Amino acid sequence: YLRQAAEKGYDRAQNQLGVCYELGRGVEKNLSEALKWYSLAAEQGYDVAQCNLALCYDFGRGTEKSPAKAAKLYQLAAAQGYRRAHYRLGVIYAVGKGVKQDYAKAVHHYTIAAEKGDASAAYYLGECYQNGNGCKQDIEKAKYWYKKGAEGGSKYAIEALSSLE
Fold it and tell me: Distance between CA atoms of 110 and 125, rounded to whole angstroms?
């Protein structure tokens, strides 16, 4: 049924079929097929698929790495408010992968993702506040975001919080 819905152009089914091919769930693992289905759903503007496709370009899954394409797709998904895309934008701005390194933009995107409950983004935001990257150094804010990350299950946030206390 999933394939039938995907073939009829339903974006969520196309994305989910891409996930199935990427992970080998119910079908033989095939990254090229995953890329195809993510692309079809992303072209329709589905934010989750845009982010999944961006991850393919970011890490070279089923295609050659293209940090610039990944950044563009993350931005499209983030513009729709997709939390994971904001987190990934924070990462690429922090390291300058596919975009010019900009810690202030990293902090901006980490903040959006962390406020939406992303534990990894909260950890990295805490790290930015601890080190003064892209923001004014503020140990209390670092602790706050590490605590949020720890509450969300980030082992790195748990370790960072314990080292500050």
Answer: 6
Tell me which amino acid residue 81 is: G
Backbone φ and ψ of 110, nearest 5°: -60, -40
Average pLDDT over residues 147-151: 97
Q: Which among 96, 102, 104, 98 is positioned nearest to 73, based on CA atoms? A: 98
Can you give the pTM of this predicted structure? 0.92
Percent of the chain with pLDDT over 70: 100
Cα torsion 87, 46, 12, 53 to 10°: value is: -60
Instruction: Write the DSSP assignment of the chain as a string of letters.
Output: -HHHHHHTT-HHHHHHHHHHHHHTSSS---HHHHHHHHHHHHHTT-HHHHHHHHHHHHHTSSS---HHHHHHHHHHHHHTT-HHHHHHHHHHHHHTSSS---HHHHHHHHHHHHHTT-HHHHHHHHHHHHHTSSS---HHHHHHHHHHHHHTT-HHHHHHHHHH-
The rounded distance, in Å, linking the Cα atoms of 40 and 23 is 18
Neighbours of 108 (CB within 10 A): 17
| Residue linked to tokens 């790195």 | 156
